[in-house]
Specification:
single chain; 332 residues; alpha/beta; Quinone Oxidoreductase, Chain A, domain 1; Rossmann fold; 2 domains; six-stranded parallel β-sheet; 10 helices; 15 strands; binds NADPH dihydro-nicotinamide-adenine-dinucleotide phosphate; mRNA 3'-UTR AU-rich region binding; zinc ion binding; oxidoreductase; QOR-like; GroES-like_sf
Length: 332
């Protein structure tokens, strides 16, 4: 059964790579048709993630023209051929591509129904980033009670959630963030040490991390800032410690000669969420865990702002300009 669906829609289209201004808001973009295994979802709300900026700038390759956006929440309005497990009218959240639009054809395998008791906003403010931080704290490095953890950009979309999850595990968290307002947010989440790495004192954050850990350094660093923090992260980690590089907010890290790891016998990981949720079983494991944390109130979300879809250029400017805390969202 197909609910009534228009033939054209509002969407943000990317024809070439470049700065935020290459994002084109259109009102007459064709509504996609769901193919085998896909659902057509009318998005109520869509998530904006830093990865969207990598596809926009060309740091990550993707075919153009392209509609950006890796996640959305809304209502199933049609099913592709041989698609099972869903009905029109289901309220769902999905991972896929093409979220900066009113309608998106999404893989049913990466879609789940939103449980009663959670709003679309709660879920989308924690979906891609929440699944990421759960996978990285359970599997990439299983964080233990008492571990010292250094987390960069701790007031950001992923950082805001990760700080809470690390504290609930019982880790000792050192969070970095840019500016007093962001630092206050990180402190309010229970971080043990908060460093404003853009302040005069905080510029020497490696020294502050060493001091906080009795000269030892941390057990694990979660570094999604990349270029600007990487060398410091290598210094701030303790002997036999782990560094997880998972993003390029300031640019990619320089090539890493593996011999550089030997003096401290370090482990380095470069994870991506999608590798941890390839099977339906893995995807449901992490989505169920996320929903449990949201429903119990253990995990709180923070929405930076809901931008109208036509303000997408400003949204990207704010995200890249380090002006957001928590999660930016788009609404068509
Ligand atoms: P954020 O909301 O965290 O935004 C990025 C933050 O990085 C900024 O707010 C800023 O915080 C900090 N930052 C530091 N240096 C710069 C810079 N030069 N330019 C811009 N920002 C800078 O984004 P997300 O929550 O969407 O993503 C966080 C990170 O996690 C990204 O690197 C992203 O790619 C990565 N990620 C990776 C995944 C994976 O599967 N590997 C999945 C999900 C996210 P401040 O001002 O406090 O420094």
């Amino acid at each position: 059964r197909r609910m009534s669906v228009p033939t054209t829609m509002k969407a943000v289209v990317l024809e070439t790579t470049g700065g935020p201004e290459v994002l084109q808001f259109k009102t007459d973009y064709p509504v996609p048709s769901p193919q085998e295994g896909e659902l057509l979802v009318r998005n109520n709300i869509s998530g904006v993630n830093f990865i969207d900026t990598y596809f926009r700038t060309g740091l990550y390759a993707s075919p153009k023209p392209e509609v950006l956006g890796r996640e959305g929440a809304g209502t199933v309005v049609a099913l592709g051929p041989n698609t099972t497990g869903f009905q029109t009218g289901d309220r769902v959240v999905w991972l896929g591509t093409g979220g900066y639009a009113e309608f998106t054809a999404v893989p049913a395998s990466k879609t789940v129904k939103i449980p009663e008791g959670l709003t679309d906003e709660d879920v989308i403010a924690s979906f891609l980033s929440g699944l990421t931080i759960l996978a990285f704290t359970k599997e990439t490095y299983p964080v233990k009670k008492g571990d010292w953890v250094l987390l960069h950009a701790a007031a950001g979309g992923a950082g805001y959630l990760m700080t809470q999850v690390l504290k609930s595990i019982g880790a000792k968290v050192i969070g970095t963030a840019g500016g007093p307002e962001k630092c206050a947010i990180v402190k309010s989440l229970g971080a043990d040490v908060v460093i404003d790495y853009r302040s005069e004192e905080g510029k020497d954050w490696v020294k502050l991390v060493k001091e906080a850990t009795g000269g030892q350094g941390v057990d694990v660093v979660y570094d999604s800032v990349g270029k600007d923090t990487w060398e410091g992260s290598l210094e701030a980690v303790k002997r036999k410690g782990t560094i997880i590089w998972f993003g390029n907010a300031s640019g990619p890290i320089p090539p890493l000669p593996l011999a550089k790891l030997s003096p401290k016998a370090l482990k380095v990981a470069r994870p991506t969420l999608f590798t941890y949720i390839e099977t339906r079983e893995e995807f449901e494991y992490y989505t169920n865990e996320l929903f449990r944390l949201l429903l119990s109130g253990e995990l709180k979300v923070k929405i930076h702002k809901v931008y109208p879809l036509e303000d997408v250029v400003q949204c990207h400017k704010d995200l890249e300009g380090r002006k957001t805390t928590g999660k930016p969202l788009l609404k068509a």
